[in-house]
Design brief:
Subcellular location: Cell membrane
Helix content: 10-25%
CATH architecture: Sandwich
Strand content: 35-45%
Organism: Astyanax mexicanus (Blind cave fish)
CATH superfamily: Immunoglobulins
Keywords: Cell membrane, Disulfide bond, Glycoprotein, Immunity, Membrane, Signal, Transmembrane, Transmembrane helix
CATH topology: Immunoglobulin-like
Pfam families: V-set
Distance between the termini: 23 Å
Number of domains: 1
Number of strands: 13
Protein name: Ig-like domain-containing protein
Number of helices: 2
Order of helices and strands: HEEEEEEEEEEEEEH
């Protein structure tokens, strides 16, 4: 019984992350925003998909998830009014209507299969300084970089880049590190229990 509990807990905490880098998307407050998940992350439709948001200094929150073979949408109540997700082919997008400053943060597309939850690359949503009176959560300084597309595009900068994410990515990494530590500890305990049971049976014989 105890071994079953440990195995269940071990499977529950398996989390993977994508190796892709953080994308940056700059918008204006009040506009409608579309955030896209990378197509390579969506190719296998045997997964269930969802979107998470991580705000500064907070744990990731579920925004919306797709249910019933990704045909229907189920919202977290906090995001029910202005957020929606759609999946068409290999295009998974998150739509935000009439953005407000509190919408800034890092958004992750997530896929789930059996007991494994995998985070795709994050998209950091920030707002132009001219439309915001508060300091944005992330300070970005790009030197000798080139941006592609308009203000609603995801950016890739070449050259010397300084990205100071004040806790967004760090918080996620801390969570994942702790999950890895817990997972390792669970495996060690399981092996120890199995060894003890084996030794007891051997002694009884």
């Amino acid at each position: 019984m105890m071994i079953t509990v440990f195995i269940s807990f071990y499977l529950f905490v398996i989390v993977k992350t994508s190796n892709d880098g953080l994308q940056v998307q700059t918008e204006k407050i009040g506009e409608n925003v579309t955030i896209k998940c990378e197509e390579s992350f969506i190719k296998d439709h045997q997964y269930s998909f969802a979107w998470f948001k991580q705000s500064y200094g907070k744990l990731p929150q579920l925004v919306v998830r797709l249910v019933n073979n990704n045909l229907n949408v189920r919202h977290n109540r906090q995001f029910q009014q202005r957020f929606n997700a759609t999946l068409k082919g290999d295009q998974l997008v998150l739509n935000i209507q009439e953005t407000v400053e509190e919408d800034s943060g890092t958004y992750f597309c997530v896929r789930v299969k059996t007991d494994v939850t995998e985070f795709g690359s994050g998209t950091l949503l920030i707002f132009n300084e001219e439309t915001s009176q508060k300091r944005t959560l992330t300070e970005i300084k790009v030197k000798n970089g080139t941006s592609y597309g308009n203000s609603s595009s995801q950016y890739t900068a070449f050259g010397e880049t300084e990205l100071h994410a004040e806790g967004d990515c760090t918080g996620q990494m801390i969570i994942l590190i702790w999950l890895s530590i817990v997972r390792t500890a669970v495996v060690a305990v399981m092996l120890f229990i199995i060894a003890v049971i084996y030794s007891v049976k051997k002694i009884k014989k």
